[in-house]
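Friendly challenge for the regulars: who can give me the C-alpha cells for this chain first? No prize, just bragging rights.
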Amino acid sequence: MATLDDLRRIAVDLPGSEERAMTGGAAWFVRRKLFAWECHPWPSVPEDIREIIAAELVVGVKVGDRMDALALVEMEPDTFLRTTTPWNEPKIAFRMARIDLDHLGELVTEAWRTQAPNYLRREFDGA
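First reply, four minutes later:
Bragging rights claimed.
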C-alpha cells in the first residue's frame, strides 16, 4: 500500500519538482505545471467517485493520452477510477491503498514526464 509520503519521496527525486499545499490537499508541479495531486471530493465529481474519494486517499496524475487512462481503468477497475472531473485532461485517478510502490513510481514519473520541459527530462535521463 502506497502513501503520500511515498509519493513525496518519488517526486523529490524528479528535477524541478515542487510540492504545494492546495485547497484539496497536496499537489506536485514541475515548472508551474501540475503533474500529481491529492484528489478532493468536489461537488463536480460524480457521486459514486466522490464517495470513494471521501472515504480513502485517491491521487490523480497526468497521463500522455486519454487512451492510456482508459487502458488503466480497463486493466484494473478496482484501482483506477473511471473519471473525476473533465478538467486537466488527460489524467487518471487511483486508490492509493491498491497501488504498489513500483507502479506508483512509474505513474508519478510518467506524469512528471508529460509536463516537464525537454531539458529537465534530459537531466533526469542522464542521471
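The chain has a mean pLDDT of 93. Helices lie at 4-12, 47-55, 66-75, 101-115, 118-126. Your move, everyone else.
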